[in-house]
């Protein structure tokens, strides 16, 4: 399976939400990473056909999705940002309902729904009302419905919003489980959602593709630009004003700053290994400059 985004642009009131976006995806997990407003949802909405681009094409295995018509839908599973569920629906009944919408034959749907409830660890909750579930459980119902048609491409828009750390980990593991032999596109602004599971990270800023590479290669790309700087109460204000800082920790020997800077920021600065959060800040954020 291959997905190609070709020269995709979308404007709102003369401002680009997405500008000449080009990318190619093959099987694996792709983390679509960008700050709020970077254009992630716009790209996903164009991909799933909710939104029309002003320009460009989405291709599946080199075929324009517009020429696939309704068949296109059989290829994708989609979990939208902030999914709205009918709270009075029971979990299994909701999945049955989604099977009808997805035109999945009854027996096949019933079997698949049960299998998926097992995988997302919700078998015991199958007769519970969705309104009575925790946020994490609801997201697991969301991913189960997205997987009902056994899609080649799974698209998840900010799927971990509102989840606690444990639910987040569980959800990440599920995504890895579901990524075998398919493309998973996961939009997020939370680096830890994708740092250890994405095969590739697509870095988006102001509607433009900044970088697409593996998390490891992206981190290697900024080697020599991340520093540990120790500040004192007297020097901290000055450093906060001028340096891009990704982390700050007060210790007995001073205030340790994780600084992102092309040059050595002071004589005692020590070079440290970059991580994906540093990459994100290096390319797309302003860091914590006060
Ligand atoms: N319907 C709309 N009308 C006008 N502007 C819009 C509309 N939808 C999106 N935008 C603008 O397009 C840009 C990209 O928005 P988009 O929702 O795609 O970003 P995002 O990366 O998904 O952000 P978030 O993480 O906050 O959802 C933003 O500047 C946004 O304000």
TrEMBL record:
Gene Ontology molecular functions: ATP binding
Residues covered by the ABC transporter domain: 3-231
InterPro entries referenced in this protein's UniProt entry, alphabetically: AAA+_ATPase, ABC_transporter-like_ATP-bd, ABC_transporter-like_CS, P-loop_NTPase
Keywords recorded for this protein, A-Z: ATP-binding, Nucleotide-binding, Transport
Gene3D superfamilies the UniProt entry points to: P-loop containing nucleotide triphosphate hydrolases
Family, similarity comment: Belongs to the ABC transporter superfamily.
Designated name of the protein: ABC transporter ATP-binding protein
């Amino acid at each position: 399976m291959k997905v190609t985004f070709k020269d995709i642009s979308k404007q709102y009131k003369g401002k680009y939400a997405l500008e000449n976006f080009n990318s190619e995806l093959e099987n694996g997990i792709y983390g679509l990473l960008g700050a709020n407003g970077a254009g992630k949802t716009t790209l996903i909405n164009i991909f799933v056909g909710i939104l029309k681009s002003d320009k460009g094409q989405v291709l599946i295995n080199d075929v324009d999705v517009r020429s696939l018509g309704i068949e296109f839908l059989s290829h994708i599973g989609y979990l939208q940002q902030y999914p709205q569920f009918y709270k009075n629906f029971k979990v299994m009944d909701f999945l049955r309902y989604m099977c009808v919408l997805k035109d999945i034959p009854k027996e096949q749907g019933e079997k698949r729904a049960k299998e998926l409830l097992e995988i997302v660890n919700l078998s015991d909750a199958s007769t519970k009302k969705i309104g009575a579930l925790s946020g994490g459980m609801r997201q697991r119902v969301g991913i189960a419905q997205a997987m009902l048609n056994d899609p080649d491409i799974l698209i998840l828009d900010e799927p971990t919003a509102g989840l606690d750390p444990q639910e987040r980990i569980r959800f990440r593991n599920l995504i890895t489980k579901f990524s075998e032999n398919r493309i998973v596109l996961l939009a997020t602004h939370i680096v830890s959602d994708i740092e250890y599971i994405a095969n590739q990270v697509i870095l988006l800023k102001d509607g433009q593709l900044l970088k697409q590479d593996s998390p490891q290669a992206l981190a290697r790309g900024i080697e020599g630009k991340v520093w540990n700087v120790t500040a004192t109460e007297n020097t901290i204000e000055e450093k906060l004003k001028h340096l891009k800082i990704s982390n700050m920790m007060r210790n007995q020997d001073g205030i340790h700053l994780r600084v992102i800077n092309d040059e050595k920021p002071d004589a005692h600065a020590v070079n440290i290994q970059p991580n994906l959060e540093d990459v994100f800040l290096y390319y797309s954020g302003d860091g914590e400059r006060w």
